[in-house]
Design a protein that fits this description.
Elements: H1 6-9, H2 13-32, H3 37-44, H4 48-55, H5 63-72, H6 76-79, H7 89-112
Helix pairs in contact: 3-4, 3-5
């Protein structure tokens, strides 16, 4: 059985589901390319067992191993926008709120200094 780490033991269920789906998607991509796990593992610089664990969505597999598989399957372009600042709806909202608050503080100070 694979070793577990503290950071993966309490992984929220929705994140476990996402990893399983992502792993399954990578398996489909590999199969569409008519590549065996053994061949992909050799190109990615890991073992066949690691590829199997990635395709199963194992959260204990290093991010580097996941990214090597993504690179071998030529899917890296899909990942660049995954967490891009432009797509961070929550972060953009919080940033806009913070800027608006700062603007109100500036306007208040300017009124206080108006002689």
């Amino acid at each position: 059985m694979a070793k577990t780490r503290k950071c993966t033991e309490g992984l929220p269920a929705p994140m476990v589901d996402i990893l399983r789906r992502l792993g399954g998607n990578l398996a489909v991509a590999r199969k569409r390319r008519r590549m065996r796990q053994k061949d992909v593992a050799e190109l990615a610089g890991c073992t066949r067992q690691t590829i199997a664990r990635i395709e199963a969505g194992d959260p204990a597999v290093s991010m580097g191993a996941w990214m090597n598989l993504v690179w071998v399957l030529q899917l890296s372009g899909e990942f660049i926008g995954l967490c891009s600042p432009e797509r961070d709806v929550l972060g953009l909202g919080l940033d806009a709120e913070s800027r608006a608050r700062l603007q109100r503080v500036r306007e208040k100070r300017e009124k206080e200094l108006d002689f």
